[in-house]
Amino acid sequence: MALENRLLFLLLAMFFDFSASQKINIMILNEERNWEASDSFRAAQEYFKQTPTLGVEIGNLMNVTGNTTDAKTFLEMMCTEYNNSIAEKNPPHIVLDFTMSSVPSETAKSFTAALGLPTISTSFGQEGDLRQWRTLDEREKKYLIQIMPPADIIPEVIRSIVVSQNITNAGILFDDSIVMDHKYKSLLQNIPTRHMIVKVDQQGPRAQLERMRSRDIFNYFIVGRMTTIKKVFDVAYKKKYFMRQFAWHGITSDSGNVYCDCKNATVFYVKPRPNQEYTDRYDLLKTKFGLSGTPEITVSFYFDIAVRTLMAAKTIMKGKPYWENYVTCNDYDEKSRPVPDVNLMKAFTEVTEKPSYGPFVLKSNGQSMMKFNMDMTLVTINNKIPVKSVEVATWEADLVKGLDIKNGDKMVENSAVTVYRIVTVVQKPFVMYDGVDDKNRTKFKGYCIDLIDEIRNITKFDYDIFEAPDGKFGNMDENGEWNGMIKELILKNADIALGSLSVMAERENVVDFTVPYYDLVGITILMKKPKAATSLFKFLTVLENDVWLCILAAYFFTSFLMWVFDRWSPYSYQNNREKYKDDEEKREFNLKECLWFCMTSLTPQGGGEAPKNLSGRLVAATWWLFGFIIIASYTANLAAFLTVSRLDTPVESLDDLAKQYKIQYAPLANSSAQTYFQRMADIESRFYEIWKDMSLNDSLTDVERAKLAVWDYPVSDKYTKIWQAMKEAKFPDSLEAAVARVMESKSSSEGFAFIGDATDIRYLVLTSCDLQMVGEEFSRKPYAIATQQGSPLKDQFNNAILQLLNKRKLEKLKEQWWNQNPEKKRNCEKQDDQTDGISIQNIGGVFIVIFVGIGLACITLAFEYWWYRFKRNPQVVDTGNVVVQPRTIPTAGGGKMDPLTMPGFRPRNTGFSERPFTQRNAALAAVNNPW
């Protein structure tokens, strides 16, 4: 009987043209929320009724609608309709699957694939997303066809925008008109963009926007209906999210202009652009066949799918009656399921009916779609209405194509400027005040500011910087609460903590640190620089004043004694001239000569001719011995005196500071240094308690107790004593107060020493000539930039810092802010222990002695000249012969001296020549020697 019916069908097909009116049985599978598809199919029914020339008549229409949760009920409904149609010998020629996603779509795909029903599906999903159709063979791919709806393609524009603008963060909100289940991973796959995809809460997206903002998201994409876009924009405007660091994108399939309750907002608006080639047809369908509803692109898509599906079914029905092989759901056998030999793909592609919105491109499932274009415009909304619109780009709907940018400058100008909130603490030279800007905001400069600017040039962002409210770097108190910059990061008031922030284990538990950008820096000691007392006559302080007076007294006494011995000794020159008349050196030791002899005897020049008498020579020898001892002692003591003054360094380390009691010392209150010493003292105390518990344990054997008794106190109490001394010295409240206490110190061995961050101390020494850094640094840690825990900024900044390190930019910054710092003191006096010799301040008195001696000599010369020239009243007479009257002078031969005639002699005083010779001789001697 079946063979006879088939032959009859073939004979009738040869003589009659069935294309004039072909009755097609169709099964419609849909879900409750897809009312656009239902309305569009009704318009398609009307279209075929009023266009009989198409040769399509809808026969048995099986319409099954399921909900989004109950797969079993939906499957039972489909099987019931299908089984009934087979029983009535009116099975579906084709299935039109309007289900969108999730349970209805999966159920429909399982049903059609199992029973081998030729199907056109408009479910959402890209290649591989339809799990039930994932393993189709080549024959099945010809009749199980999926065509993605426009709402499944439109979100792909986000990927194109992100790629073209190199966006690193994105917040995507969508409504129920968009299915994003399969796009959570695939939409921005293989793109380095941190993103969140969230369905809009219809009660209000406020909490969603706040959560995204707390995750440092600044680029927002709202995909859905115009009402949804307006709702999100309204909340964002109230939250003051329309600022330069944000970018807003409204993406919709609706037509019309974007709007919101905003006074001044600029957004990117993306919507489909109708193809002018098909506009007239759509208007005709809308007015004549009731193709109504919105969005236009969606209803047009479902209408064209319905028309083309029925036209394709008409084509494939011209072949053999494949529906005769259908089996009911009850007779279904998984091992031998029916596979009809039809090529629905080819039939659908060959349909010549003009589309109402755009052409179809059929490839494999997950890549077939309707072609359309979308315009991206920059819209300015003022007083709730759009006042300006500029086209910036277009996009051809596709899974891989990018934006066609029309106005790149406008896109860049209105894109989100990535603005990070930076908290800092002022510490020279890393961060310093630099006045205020034109908006009356505090500006900063320094090493860290230059560093963040260099990083910004690499990672492309902007920043707002503010100082930590309490001015602290960040420490944890006994209750586990944080302060300073760390607190601002924990509370998410800041994105970055910038400054000379040390990397500490406790801080790493609550924030993330980048790679270090600076060397290891520890804690050190600041003290007042010792200043040795300088004096021009410091060489005189080698001996005490009493010694100098005794030396001076010995000098006068010895000189006087030598004069007395020479005057009264019969063997002296002045008392025995005849004896020493043939000696070459004749020296009469009067009082002046004795003083001169004793003075010059103390010099390398020597005193000259010694006295002739033995007693005088003994006095001279005694004086020489005395002078040798005094000079040798003075020389040795002078060298020792200057050397000891250079070696006067009472404190050279923390241990030296802890061993003395004249110098108080302490760090800043609530500083890292204070925390360090407090915890070190606590550790000593804990270790002692542990050792004590072990030692007092009664269960220990004698051998074990002997091992513990090696040390009476195995843990040093060094830091315990230091901490106690610090508490007694009181902790300064600020760095300025600490420096003031140091400057008030009486000397380097008495006063106050500040223990603090080596950076602070090194900069204070750099900019002051009165301070010095003492000892080596301890508890050294590197400096790094801190970010919120889990923030992607850590990796971005790590890459940037490593690039700067390779380019030696960090070394240049260090050179600029340390060695070339304009505040650096360059004319500080060197300490004695830093010079190669005695300073002029300590030996300059010797030069004064020379000048005083020369001055005295000049005064003496003037006195001598005055005494000789004016005191004696000289007279000038004519030159003549002076005849010396004969006198009876005993000679060596016992005779008399003959009269002497001295030609040319002109006496200055006529009365002088008439005096006896002995008197004249005495007078001349008196003139020549006033002493």
UniProtKB/TrEMBL annotation:
One Pfam family of this chain: Lig_chan
InterPro entries, A to Z: Glu/Gly-bd, Iono_Glu_rcpt_met, Ionotropic_Glu_rcpt, Iontro_rcpt_C, Peripla_BP_I
Disulphide bonds in the chain: C769-C828
Entry keywords, A to Z: Cell membrane, Disulfide bond, Glycoprotein, Ion channel, Ion transport, Ligand-gated ion channel, Membrane, Receptor, Transmembrane, Transmembrane helix, Transport
GO cellular component: plasma membrane
The keyword Nucleotide-binding is assigned to this record: no
UniProt-annotated site: Crucial to convey clamshell closure to channel opening, residues: V651
Compartments where located: Cell membrane
GO molecular function: ligand-gated monoatomic ion channel activity; signaling receptor activity
Membrane-topology descriptor: Multi-pass membrane protein
Residues the entry annotates as binding L-glutamate: S502, R507, S672, D757
Family: Belongs to the glutamate-gated ion channel (TC 1.A.10.1) family.
Name the UniProt record assigns to this protein: Chemosensory protein
